[in-house]
Specification:
CATH superfamily of the largest domain in chain A: Medium-chain alcohol dehydrogenases, catalytic domain
Largest sheet of chain B: 7 strands, antiparallel
Largest sheet of chain A: 7 strands, mixed
CATH topology of the largest domain in chain A: Quinone Oxidoreductase, Chain A, domain 1
Oligomer: heterodimer
Helix content of chain A: 25-40%
Order of helices and strands of chain B: HHHHHHEHEEEEEEHHH
Strand order of the largest sheet of chain B: 1-7-6-5-4-3-2
Bound molecules: nicotinamide-adenine-dinucleotide, zinc ion
Largest interface: A-B, 42 and 35 residues
CATH class of the largest domain in chain B: Alpha Beta
Strand content of chain B: 15-25%
Number of strands of chain B: 7
Helix content of chain B: 40-55%
C-alpha cells in the first residue's frame, strides 16, 4: 500500500510499504477514506518529538471502512464505516475505566522509555513516535487499529467525512479544552492559537455557554474564521500587546479561563524573546517555546483555569510559577481522552449544534501529502486544515 | 536477608560457609586464653621453657589469638579474618623453626609436635580463608530484584494465572517454556542468545492461595534461583498490587556470561517489562504489539526499533 512516511526533519514522502495485518486478537484493519494533517504532525515534521525513525508512517487522524477484524472484535464487521480516536486505549485498565483513555496503562509497548522521560507512560498514539508506541499511522491506504472493540466509532451515512474525521482528534481535543474551563454564565474565555484546535475550542466554549470568547493569533485569515464561525473577538499579537488588550477587554479582571492551543512551537512577536527560546530549543537545553503558556498564566484571572491542550514534549524554561502559585490558578491538561467524546460530539454534529468542518481549508489526494505538509507548515494559501483523501 | 535470600543462599556454595571460620575462632579463643593465663605450662608443653625470651613472647601470641577469635566469632568479613590467622600462623612457624634449630632431645621432639600441629591448623586457616572468599564473591554475584505492578484484577484472578506456572512464558520474555510435572514441581527452559538454553527444575516451596507463591530451583541447579510473588489488594479498589522478588546466582565463567546475557544489562528493567506484560495479558487478554515493537514490550527491542510500518511478509 501507499503510506506517508517521516524521512527526517522537514521531510515526508509517500512510498510503498507492506499492507498491515492483524497482530492482536482485538485488532481491526481499516481501509482509509480520509485522513488529516494535524498541528501535532508539524511537531514531528520539525523534529521536536524524540524517538522518530526514518520510515515511520505518520498520521493519527483517520477514518474509513473496516475490512478485517480480529477474533475478539465483536462490535464491528467488515463494511462498517468508522472514525478512529488517536489515543490507543485498551478499555480495561483502571485509567481507561475512569475515562482517562490517553493515559491507558497497556497500549504503549515502549512504556519503559517513556517512563524514563515522563515518569510514567501515557497511552500509545498512532504515528506519533516510538516513545509513544511505535505504531504505524493513518496517513496511508490502510491502518491496523488495536483495541478495535473499544476505540472506533461507527459513523452514520448522513455525516460526511469532512465532519466525521475531525472526531478522531481536533474536535474532541478542542471540546475537552473548553470543558476544562468549567464555564459558568457570564464568563470570558481566551484562546491562544487559531489553528484547528484553537478555533474549535473557541466554538466549543461558545457552545458551552461562554459570554465572550477571545482568540489570539497572528494570522488574519485564521482570526477571521474565529470571528465568523466561533463568534469570537480576536487579538492579533503582532499588532497589539496581548496582556494589555485582555486587561482592557475584561476591565482589569483577566479572562476567567485561558486555553493554550499553541503548544511547544509557540511564536513570539518580540524578536528577542523568540530568539532566547528558539536558541535554547535548537541547542536542546530547552525542548519547548512556551510563549503562549507563559502569557496565558499571566493573563488569567486570579483563581481561574489554564487549560493546556497544546502539546508539550519535554521541559519548559522560565515558567511563571510565582504568578501561578500566588494567584491560586488551576491548570488542567492532557492529550485528549477522545473515546470519551466521540459519541456525544457526533450527536451534537447531527443535531446541528455545530459544524466543525469550517476549519477545513484543503482537500488533496494522499499522494500529495508532502505538499500538504509544506503549505500547512508555511501557512500558505490560507491553510488551516488539510484533509488527505485516499 | 529475607525469606527469599535464606531459601536461595545455602545453594550457593555447598556447606554453610561460616562453620569453619567459627570453629577456628573457637580454637583461637582457647589457645589465646591458655597462653595468657598459663604461659609457663604452655612453654613446657611446646618445649621452649628454657628461654626467657620465649616465655615473654607467649602472652603476646595469646593476645593476638584473642584478637583473631573476636574477629572470627563476630561473623563479619570471615575471609579477611581467616587470612590474618594465616599470617599469624606463618609468624608462629618461623619462630618455631628458629627455636627448633638450637634444641635437642625431648624439647626438640615437643617443638616438632607443636610445629606439626600449627602447620595443620595453618592448612585449615588457608582453606577457611579461600572458602570464605569464594562464598563472599558468589554472594556478591547474587542478583536481587524487587519489582511491583498494579493490575486491575482481583488477587484471586492474578494468583490463579501465576499459579499455573505454564503461563509464565506468556509474559516472562526470557522463558521458552515451563512444564509442570505435578502440583509443586516444574521444569523451566530459558532461551539465551545464540541458541543457548539454560534449563532447571523448580519447586513451589510455599503456596498461600490468592496471597502468595514462593518457588526455588531444586538443589544441583547450575543457576540457583528463587522467587516469591505476593498478591495484595490495592488500596481504593484498584485491583491488586503484584509484588515480585527474585534472586538468582549466576555461576562464574561461560555459563555465567550466558545467564548475564539472558537478563541483559538491566535485569531489573527486564523483570519490570515482564510484569508490564503480565498486566497486559490479565487486563487486555494478550501482549500488546506495535509495528515498531512487534514482539511487544522489550527493553532490548526498544533500543533497536524497526520503523513503524507493517511487517514485511517474511517477518510475520
Ligand atoms: N492535547 C491534545 O490531545 C492535542 C490534540 C491535537 C493537537 N494538539 C496540539 O494542539 C496544538 C495546536 O494544534 P493545531 O492543529 O491547531 O496546530 P496549528 O499549528 O495549526 O495551530 C497553532 C496556532 O498557534 C498560533 N500561535 C503560535 N504562537 C502563538 C502565540 N505565541 N500566541 C498565540 N498564537 C500562537 C499559530 O500561529 C497557529 O495558528 C498543537 O500543539 C498540537 O500538537 C493537542
Ligand atoms: Zn491531531
Ligand atoms: Zn487502558
Amino acid at each position: 500500500m501507499k503510506a506517508n512516511v517521516w524521512m527526517g526533519t522537514d521531510s515526508v514522502r509517500v512510498i510503498d510499504v507492506p499492507d498491515p495485518t492483524i497482530m492482536n486478537a482485538r485488532d481491526a484493519i481499516v481501509r482509509i477514506s480520509t485522513t488529516a494533517i494535524c498541528g501535532s504532525d508539524l511537531h514531528l515534521y520539525h523534529g521536536y518529538i524524540p524517538a522518530m525513525r526514518k520510515g515511520d508512517i505518520l498520521g493519527h487522524e483517520f477514518m474509513g471502512e473496516v475490512v478485517e477484524v480480529g477474533p475478539q472484535v465483536r462490535n464491528l464487521k467488515p463494511g462498517d464505516r468508522v472514525v478512529v480516536p488517536f489515543p490507543i486505549a485498551c478499555g480495561h485498565c483502571s485509567s481507561c475505566q475512569r475515562g482517562l483513555y490517553s493515559v491507558c496503562e497497556n497500549s504503549n509497548p515502549n512504556a519503559g522509555i517513556a517512563e524514563k522521560v515522563m515518569g510514567h507512560s501515557p497511552a500509545g498514539i498512532f504515528g506519533y513516535s516510538h516513545l509513544l508506541g511505535g505504531y504505524a499511522g493513518g496517513q496511508a491506504e490502510y491502518a491496523r487499529v488495536p483495541f478495535a472493540d473499544v476505540g472506533p466509532l461507527k459513523v452514520p451515512e448522513d455525516v460526511p467525512d469532512d465532519q466525521a474525521v475531525l472526531l478522531a482528534d481536533v474536535f474532541p481535543t478542542a471540546y475537552m479544552g473548553a470543558e476544562m474551563c468549567d464555564i459558568k454564565p457570564g464568563q470570558v474565555i481566551a484562546v491562544w492559537g487559531a489553528g484547528p484546535v484553537g478555533l474549535l475550542a473557541a466554538a466549543s466554549a461558545r457552545m458551552l455557554g461562554a459570554e465572550r470568547v477571545i482568540v489570539i493569533d497572528r494570522f488574519p485569515y485564521r482570526l477571521r474564521l474565529a470571528e465568523e464561525h466561533a463568534g469570537a473577538e480576536t487579538i492579533n499579537y503582532d499588532e497589539a500587546d496581548v496582556l494589555d488588550t485582555l486587561n482592557e477587554m475584561t476591565a482589569g479582571r483577566g479572562p476567567d479561563a485561558c486555553i493554550d492551543a499553541v503548544g511547544l512551537e509557540g511564536h513570539h512577536g518580540n524578536a528577542a524573546m523568540y530568539a532566547y527560546d528558539r536558541a535554547k530549543q535548537a541547542t536542546r537545553t530547552e525542548t519547548e517555546r512556551p510563549f503562549a503558556l507563559r502569557e496565558a498564566i499571566l493573563a488569567c484571572r486570579s483563581g481561574g483555569v489554564v487549560a493546556v491542550v497544546g502539546a508539550y514534549g519535554g521541559f519548559v524554561d522560565k515558567f511563571p510559577m510565582g504568578a501561578f502559585m500566588n494567584r491560586s490558578l488551576i491548570m488542567r491538561t492532557g492529550q485528549c481522552h477522545v473515546q470519551r467524546y466521540t459519541r456525544p460530539l457526533l450527536d451534537r454534529i447531527r443535531r446541528g449544534d455545530i459544524d466543525p468542518s469550517f476549519i477545513v481549508s484543503h482537500r488533496m489526494p494522499l499522494r500529495d501529502a508532502p505538499k500538504g505538509y509544506k503549505i500547512f507548515q508555511k501557512k500558505q494559501d490560507d491553510c488551516t486544515k488539510v484533509l488527505l483523501t485516499v | 536477608m529475607d525469606r527469599v535470600d535464606t531459601m536461595l543462599l545455602p545453594e550457593l556454595d555447598g556447606p554453610v560457609p561460616t562453620a569453619l571460620p567459627r570453629t577456628l575462632g573457637l580454637l583461637s579463643l582457647a589457645l589465646g586464653v591458655g597462653a595468657l593465663v598459663a604461659p609457663r605450662p604452655l612453654a613446657r608443653l611446646t618445649g621452649v621453657d628454657d628461654s626467657p625470651a620465649a616465655q615473654a613472647a607467649i602472652p603476646a601470641v595469646g593476645a593476638r589469638e584473642v584478637v583473631h577469635a573476636v574477629g572470627l566469632l563476630s561473623g563479619r568479613r570471615p575471609a579477611a579474618w581467616a587470612w590474618t590467622r594465616v599470617a599469624g600462623d606463618a609468624l608462629d612457624l618461623t619462630l618455631l623453626g628458629r627455636a627448633m634449630a638450637d634444641r635437642r632431645g625431648e624439647r626438640r621432639r615437643r617443638l616438632a609436635l607443636t610445629t606439626a600441629a600449627i602447620a595443620g591448623i595453618a592448612a585449615l586457616d588457608v582453606a577457611a580463608a579461600i572458602g570464605a572468599g569464594r562464598a563472599r564473591r558468589a554472594r556478591a554475584r547474587v542478583i536481587r530484584m524487587e519489582v511491583a505492578v498494579t493490575v486491575n484484577r482481583s488477587p484471586a484472578e492474578a494468583y490463579r494465572f501465576w499459579r499455573d506456572m505454564e503461563n509464565l512464558p506468556r509474559f516472562m520474555a526470557h522463558l521458552e517454556s515451563v512444564h509442570v510435572d505435578d502440583l509443586r514441581r516444574s521444569h523451566w527452559i530459558a532461551r539465551g542468545p545464540a541458541g543457548h538454553r539454560v534449563e532447571w527444575r523448580a519447586e513451589i516451596v510455599d503456596d498461600q492461595p490468592n496471597r502468595s507463591i514462593t518457588w526455588r530451583s531444586l538443589p544441583g541447579t547450575r543457576v540457583p534461583n528463587a522467587g516469591r510473588v505476593a498478591f495484595v489488594p490495592a488500596p481504593g479498589d484498584r485491583g491488586t498490587e503484584v509484588r515480585v522478588r527474585l534472586r538468582y546466582a549466576p555461576p562464574a565463567g561461560a555459563l555465567g556470561r550466558v545467564v548475564a546475557k539472558l537478563f541483559g544489562e538491566e535485569p531489573e528493567q527486564q523483570v519490570r517489562d515482564d510484569l508490564r506484560r503480565f498486566k497486559q495479558v490479565l487486563e487486555t487478554g494478550e501482549v500488546v504489539r506495535s509495528e515498531g515493537s512487534p514482539n511487544g514490550i522489550s527493553v532490548r527491542q526498544q533500543a533497536m526499533q524497526r520503523p513503524a510500518q507493517p511487517l514485511p511478509a517474511s517477518r510475520r
